[in-house]
Design goal:
The protein has nine helices and two strands; from the N terminus they run ααββααααααα. It has 210 residues and is mainly alpha-helical. The chain has two domains: 112 residues, Cytochrome c-like domain (Cytochrome Bc1 Complex, Chain D, domain 2, Orthogonal Bundle), CATH 1.10.760; 79 residues, Cytochrome Bc1 Complex, Chain D, domain 2. α1 packs across α4, α5 packs across α9 and α7 packs antiparallel against α9. 25% of the residues are buried. It binds heme C (2 copies). One heme C binds next to α1, α2, β1 and α3.
């Protein structure tokens, strides 16, 4: 049997080892826990199966990072969001409150994780083929430069529009139209050319990607 004094030293050396290696390993566990909490709404790997939360898996890391920083600074509107599963199911919060709890280092790590996952398009969305056709023409005229291939490329750093939940696209376009969500000067220039009814056609176009 060990003497108490030896036990004391082994505990002491163990705690030194832990405090040296601890910084990164604890953080990794924290990050995993935060990512799990995102899944309560955004689904496993960000592949949201509910129209009440956008799909975020497969977005580029810079886009996710910038979005979270914008939420943190309340530069983006924060509609009320309800936990869709997990322990907090039914509780309400906002993306601004969620982002507020995270520092930039955590945000970057989380963004890298979601960026490594595939973007899984929404299924079972009903779209109007005629509207989608109209939306396609508008997109090719005004939007394709920064949202290539129907807005399906993460590398454009502009979110992913093709196959996103239509309700989320509809709401985002309304936020842009109402001037509630800031857009880059260049997007604004093109966006300003949209006519009445064009945004709904665009929603059906993005929803037509399966
Ligand atoms: C309670 C539900 C809920 C939780 C938890 C949640 N989100 Fe969200 N998230 C939403 C909703 C709803 C939206 C759409 C809100 C909006 O329009 O701004 C959203 C929007 C986003 C967007 C913007 C998507 C885009 O296309 O621009 C990102 C990025 C995001 N969330 C990341 C996260 C991350 C990372 C976490 C975990 C730290 C997280 N969310 C946790 C509900 C949630
Ligand atoms: C000059 C480049 C440019 C043009 C043109 C442009 N966009 Fe964007 N768009 C961006 C960038 C950059 C972002 C991401 C930054 C942000 O949050 O606004 C974005 C974001 C978006 C989003 C939000 C994505 C999300 O996940 O929340 C939607 C929706 C969108 N654009 C639709 C359009 C539509 C529709 C058009 C054409 C009428 C258009 N954009 C034209 C650059 C552009």
């Amino acid at each position: 049997m060990k003497q108490p004094i030896e036990n004391f030293f082994s505990i002491l050396s163990l705690s030194i080892v832990l405090s040296i290696s601890g910084a990164t390993s604890v953080l990794a566990a924290d990050i995993a826990e935060i990512i799990n909490s995102c899944a309560d709404c955004h689904g496993k790997d960000g592949a949201s199966t509910s129209q009440d939360a956008p799909i975020i898996g497969g977005f580029s890391a810079p886009y996710i990072t910038d979005s979270m920083i914008a939420y943190k600074a309340k530069e983006r509107p924060c509609p009320e969001a309800e936990y869709l599963s997990g322990d907090k199911k039914g509780k309400k919060t906002t993306m601004c409150d969620i982002a507020k709890e995270l520092n930039e280092d955590e945000i970057k790590k989380i963004a890298a994780d979601f960026a490594a996952k595939p973007f899984v398009r929404a299924t079972n969305q009903t779209f109007d083929p005629a509207l989608a056709e109209k939306g396609k023409a508008i997109h090719e005229d005004l939007c394709v430069k920064c949202h290539d291939k129907g807005g399906s490329l993460a590398s454009d750093d502009s979110g992913i529009l093709a196959g996103q939940w239509m309700s989320y696209i509809r709401q985002s376009l309304k936020e842009y139209s109402d001037g509630d969500r800031p857009m880059t000067k260049k997007m604004k220039k093109k966006y300003g050319k949209l006519k009445e009814g064009d945004t709904e056609a665009l929603v059906h176009y993005f929803g037509s990607f399966k």
